[in-house]
Design goal:
The chain is an alpha/beta fold. It contains six helices and seven strands, in the order ββααββαβααββα. Helix 1 crosses helix 6 and helix 3 crosses helix 4.
Amino acid sequence: MQPSASITCRDWPCEDMNHEAFQVPAISCDPISIRLVLIAEAPPEDASEGLWAGPAALHAQTTLLAFASAGLQAGSTKELLARGVYLTTAVKCAKRNYGIAPACVSRCSTLLEQELDLFTSVRGYLLMGDVAIRAFNALARRRTGKRVIPAGSTYKVRDGVFWYGDARVYPSYLQAGKSYFIEQSKRRMIAEDIAAALAWCGVGA
């Protein structure tokens, strides 16, 4: 199964996004083997720096560092995939500006919803940053009528226990890109959140 084969945007309604940098993971995987899904913010404008572009790519590199800090060493994101960890983004087009409009996050959450539906054995979701949290809440409201993660600063809610069906949901901070290196305290919390999700999902070294 390859997610990029079935997930696409047909009308490109988000004017403030770079549609030429639309990215859905073009990797092959066994959907039954996926136990943990990490959802970052958006792909980079340069696809060669994305999550699946190789271990030297910026977004892949910082993600691998985050998992290593959580106790899971992996040489590549494909190695994470082989261990049951799938990586994607909440929004599928690259940003043109610093922020992403709430309407765009809501619209793109329908694509994220289609993507997540491909995986039926997931035990946990890691929501890396505010955009991922908003997108996940949007799809949850369509399905259940209520949000999964309550309103509030991430550092205040991240220790809560949240569920989406039978899966645990972990709100955290963005691990992909240059922002990962800015605040040591956030890197520590990211490592803690990933470690908790790995333990719950039974994903280890």
